[in-house]
């Protein structure tokens, strides 16, 4: 705490992982001897830089850019970039720390990192977004590379932003190096299924948790928060698996549509027209828009928070359980507060923490890197099959590890322990670096 003052989200993420690791250190004294805990909590490198840019009226703005290269024991640093006004070092470090274990769980050769800026993309013109992305990458490019550090998208960074950053990287380095960024367009090195991957993957994970309990999505009423990349493709897969999603939201309010969310409309509003979710209710008179509403007050059987960190607190978790929720799968990173997690675990419902449930995005990014490395492009069906298999493996690994360490059904412990052991073993093997 003294070493990283004020970084509350980072403290929260570290505490949550360390709480699971006691039994691991007993079984593996070499991890304590080699000070793995102390080393894993300290990023290998943190880069903070100035990002100057000009708006359309010619005014100069200065934002702060970040890249935290947290751990490269398993492969090049890998993790998204977030553009949101709330971004500061504590947010990027929490996300980077989580990313280490998530990436380990995928079984693919990727280390952990995260980056972003306190730039607010809302209300900016396309040209302003382009100028910002170009300025951002003009500094960051020197730290990136397909074998070094490979960013992707996150909140506020989608295909458009990755395109502008890739273009500037290519221009500065004079290299067409597709493996340096993931989430690229399909015509220039992107992978099918990457756009859908986090939402689809989270839904596959919940499906696996439901199957363990002899349940399925068929006929279930589901609630998804957010209306961005993760939320949209979570809703799509829920519908494909026979569930009905009745909500979506943004930071201004909640849409409640009992008949089921009209996903084509959400895609049109958010992906094409970049409008607010409030406008959904203009097209469906039977849908309700609740300004500043609490989405978790709406009863559902499956909840999939897909917006941002700490969006479900202890009270929300208790409301969900009381209203009959039997499964929670986190599409977002750390969307449940520690009090909320406690409620879910004590209630014994199926609770899939983000670092396991939303690993499908980064896993498919690693599949994009594989395709880039051999200059290939796989079909949608094949790539989705790979994603489904990876999510099933992550689920089974967490489930089995939780049981092995004496807490059957506790996916939090399962994910933390399984993710940690692989990285810790690699760090021991690499010596004191
Ligand atoms: P997007 O920017 O596409 O969408 C974010 C959505 O969440 C928007 O609807 C946004 O509403 C809402 N939101 C953001 N901040 C807040 C806030 N403070 N309060 C309420 N709502 C908010 O981002 P993604 O869908 O990519 O990311 C969503 C979550 O999933 C994040 O936690 C991210 O870290 C995580 N994630 C994403 C992955 C990916 O592949 N994209 C991979 C793994 C995890 P508004 O427009 O009002 O801000």
From TrEMBL:
Marked site: Important for catalysis: 154
InterPro entries given in the database record: Aminoacid_DH-like_N_sf, Glu/Leu/Phe/Val/Trp_DH, Glu/Leu/Phe/Val/Trp_DH_C, Glu/Leu/Phe/Val/Trp_DH_dimer, Glu/Leu/Phe/Val_DH_AS, Glu_DH, Glu_Leu_Phe_Val_DH, NAD(P)-bd_dom_sf
UniProt xrefs under Pfam families: ELFV_dehydrog, ELFV_dehydrog_N
Binding site for substrate: 78, 99, 102, 153, 365
Active-site residues (renumbered): 114 (proton donor)
Cellular component per GO, a single term: cytosol
Domain of life: Bacteria
Domain Glutamate/phenylalanine/leucine/valine/L-tryptophan dehydrogenase C-terminal: 191-431
Gene Ontology MF terms in the entry: glutamate dehydrogenase (NADP+) activity; nucleotide binding
Residues reported in the UniProt entry to bind NAD(+): 198, 229
Description of how the protein assembles with itself and partners: Homohexamer.
Family to which the UniProt record says this protein belongs: Belongs to the Glu/Leu/Phe/Val dehydrogenases family.
Name the UniProt record assigns to this protein: Glutamate dehydrogenase
Taxonomic lineage from the root: Bacteria, Pseudomonadati, Thermodesulfobacteriota, Desulfuromonadia, Geobacterales
Encoding gene (name): gdhA
């Amino acid at each position: 705490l003294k070493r990283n003052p004020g970084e509350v989200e980072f403290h929260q993420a570290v505490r949550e992982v360390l709480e699971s690791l006691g039994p691991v250190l007993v079984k593996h004294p070499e991890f304590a001897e080699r000070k793995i805990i102390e080393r894993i909590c300290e990023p290998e490198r943190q880069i903070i830089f100035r990002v100057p840019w000009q708006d359309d009226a010619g005014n100069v703005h200065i934002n702060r850019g970040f890249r935290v290269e947290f751990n490269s024991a398993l492969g090049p640093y890998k993790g998204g970039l977030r553009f949101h006004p709330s971004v500061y070092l504590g947010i990027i470090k929490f996300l980077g720390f989580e990313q280490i274990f998530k990436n380990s769980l995928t079984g693919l050769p990727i280390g952990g990192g995260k980056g972003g800026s306190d730039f607010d993309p809302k209300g900016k013109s396309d040209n302003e977004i382009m100028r910002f992305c170009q300025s951002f990458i003009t500094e960051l490019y020197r730290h990136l590379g397909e074998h070094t550090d490979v960013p992707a998208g996150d909140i506020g960074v989608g295909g458009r932003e990755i395109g502008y950053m890739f273009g500037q990287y290519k221009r500065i380095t004079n290299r067409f190096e597709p493996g340096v960024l993931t989430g690229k367009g399909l015509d220039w090195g992107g992978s099918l299924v990457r756009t859908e991957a986090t939402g689809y993957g989270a839904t596959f994970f919940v499906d696996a948790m439901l199957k363990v309990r002899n349940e399925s999505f068929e006929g279930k009423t589901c609630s998804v928060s957010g209306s961005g990349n993760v939320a949209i493709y979570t809703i799509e897969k829920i519908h494909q698996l026979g569930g009905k999603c009745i909500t979506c939201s943004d930071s201004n309010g909640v849409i409640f549509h009992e008949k089921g969310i009209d996903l084509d409309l959400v895609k049109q509003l958010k992906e094409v027209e970049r409008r607010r979710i409030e406008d959904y209710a203009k097209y469906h008179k039977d849908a309700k828009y609740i300004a500043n509403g609490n989405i978790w007050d709406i009863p559902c059987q499956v909840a999939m928070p897909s917006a941002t960190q700490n969006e479900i607190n202890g009270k929300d978790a208790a409301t969900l359980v009381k209203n009959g929720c039997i499964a929670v799968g986190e599409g977002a990173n750390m969307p449940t507060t520690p009090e909320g997690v406690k409620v879910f675990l004590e209630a014994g419902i199926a609770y899939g923490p983000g670092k396991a449930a939303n690993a499908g995005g980064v896993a498919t990014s690693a599949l994009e890197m594989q395709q880039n490395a051999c200059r290939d492009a796989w079909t949608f069906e094949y790539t989705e099959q790979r994603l489904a298999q990876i999510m099933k493996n992550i689920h089974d690994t967490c489930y089995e590890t939780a049981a092995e360490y004496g807490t059957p059904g506790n996916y939090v412990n399962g994910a933390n322990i399984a993710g940690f052991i692989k990285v810790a073993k690699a760090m021991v093997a690499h010596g004191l670096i």
